[in-house]
Design brief:
- The complex is a heterodimer.
- Chain A is mainly β.
- The termini of chain A are far apart.
- In chain B, strand 4 and strand 5 form a beta hairpin.
- Chain B is about 0% helix and about 50% strand.
- Classes of the chains: A mainly beta, B mainly beta.
- The interface between A and B is medium-sized, with 25 and 30 residues.
Chain lengths: ~110, ~120
């Protein structure tokens, strides 16, 4: 199946700093989804991207659908302690519905107050 | 509020026992999914259903069974044939394969452990 590489796997940042993480694939996707998951909880959808080059914001979060359709980026500006959690990406390939979605293994974000 | 409800939050299974995880959604979504989450791995698809009374195996269906008798409900049974059932199980739903700008939403998960 398709492979999604997500990086970095973990990061420690100071409160107030900006954060950037990305996902890359060996194949193209039609849709990129970004989620945040807290320990013991289900993932919460942050941003959905549907077109190559699309740039979408949700508060302090901004995500972009790469022009090659093989990558996506998530940026968090002015981080705060509640940003702590695991962020992961998901990509839907051109063929098939969401049953074909591939998930990254996540970026664990820790914020130092 | 619309959403996906999973129960119970924690479940313990004895050897040789079948257990059932509940998933209910009030989003009026046609498609529902079950995923398994293990530490250090991406989510893996167990079963999915695109319409009532129909479901398909995902990548790791062995040892699991499902039913889809109602649009809003998609229970997952972990059978005794599943030898390594300890994991966090996530139910998800989406509007349907042919919807535009489709999104995938998740429930809050069930942690299954073996006694």
């Amino acid at each position: 199946g398709q492979q999604l590489n997500q990086s970095p796997q973990s990061m420690f940042i100071q409160e107030g700093e900006d954060v950037s993480m990305n996902c890359t694939s060996s194949s193209i996707f039609n849709t990129w989804l970004w989620y945040k998951q807290d320990p013991g909880e289900g993932p919460v959808l942050l941003i959905a991207l549907y077109k190559a080059g699309e740039l979408t914001s949700n508060g302090r979060l901004t995500a972009q659908f790469g022009i090659t359709r093989k990558d996506s980026f998530l940026n968090i500006s002015a981080s705060i302690p509640s940003d702590v959690g695991i962020y992961f990406c998901a990509g839907q390939p051109p063929s098939g519905g969401y049953q074909k979605v591939t998930f990254g293994i996540g970026t664990k974000l820790q914020v130092i107050p | 509020d619309g959403g996906i409800t999973q129960s119970p939050k924690y479940l313990f299974r004895k050897e040789g026992q079948n257990v059932t995880l509940s998933c209910e959604q009030n989003l009026n979504h046609d498609a529902m999914y079950w995923y398994r989450q293990d530490p250090g791995q991406g989510l893996r698809l167990i079963y999915y259903s695109q319409i009532v009374n129909d479901f398909q195996k995902g990548d790791i269906a062995e040892g699991y069974s499902v039913s889809r008798e109602k649009k809003e409900s998609f229970p997952l049974t972990v059978t005794s044939a599943q030898k390594n059932p300890t994991a966090f199980y996530l139910c998800a739903s989406s509007s349907g394969t042919f919807s535009t700008n489709e999104k995938l939403f998740f429930g809050s998960g069930t942690q299954l452990s073996v006694l």
